[in-house]
Amino acid sequence: MGIHQKSQKIDVAQVKQLSRLEGEALAKKEARDKELDAIIKGEDQRLLLVIGPCSSDNEEAVLEYARRLSALQEKVKDRVFMVMRVYTAKPRTNGDGYKGLIHQPDTSKLPDLINGIAAVRNLHYRVITETGLTTADEMLYPSNLPLVDDLVSYHAIGARSVEDQEHRFVASGIDVPTGMKNPTSGNLNIMFNAIYAAQNQQNFIYHDAEVDTDGNPLAHAILRGATNEHGENEPNFYYDILIKAIKKYRDMGLENPFILIDTNHDNSGKNYLDQIRIVRQTLINRDWNEQINQYVRGFMIESYLEDGRQDKPEVFGKSITDPCLGWDKTEKLIEEIYQTLGKDSFEDFLNN
Question: Domain DAHP synthetase I/KDSA: where (predicted)?
Fold first, then answer.
């Protein structure tokens, strides 16, 4: 085989002793996890924001962002609940070069996955313990889930993973909210079939053993736009598509119907400023239609300290993967969301 072992077999139990939550920090995380569960189940009507950098490439920049986000969360906590994106395996789209913190904990050095695992755990741990926020990550590699499952409060299955059987089956064994994105083709049936698989019990081989899963009733939809055969972006946050997605939820009888709008990627064409417009239009659609208001209850937003992106990590807090909203625009957008949610009606929103 062309696979060559470079290290000793990883002892997952030993890894979990690194950056392990205990005491007050663990209790706070568990309390916030219960709040998040209640939002997905519709028992808590606050709007969910899964928000933060496209990829967490720099520990200190990510922590500075987390401190600012935590202070803002406290101001808007009665209407908005935020889980911070701490994406640690997020590569550049074409797979060239940087492949995320887990591969390259220091962007100035060669890949180092063993130290990358420690860096990943340490970053989630520091965000949780130093700011009180809870974190989201993308499950790019299902086999890596046991390395972080005690720290991460929200998992996302990406557009290129959602068709993969192992991702679907492992998602059925996760006990926290798990967002399933539509594939890059935009085919909603594929996404809903993934949600169905994740919500049901599964039996498969995982980590060299036969396993059964309980099913994950908190698996739900993320609409992230599509790319057509001509390479053009086709957003899917529009009113008519939301109605179709809601009908699909109902027809399939899935549990805890919940739709999150990804404001970047193919919805924005990676024009990061369009995230603001997408949020505004979706809030208007929620006010126009009670079904949309009931089902579409969150946004995924890519945001960092500085606007845009860069090829090399030269500017502190500026993305080296997809472009992000800078902090000033992020703060204004969240304040706008908060104020809009406080309007008694759409007419009040227009008049003020």
Answer: 35-333
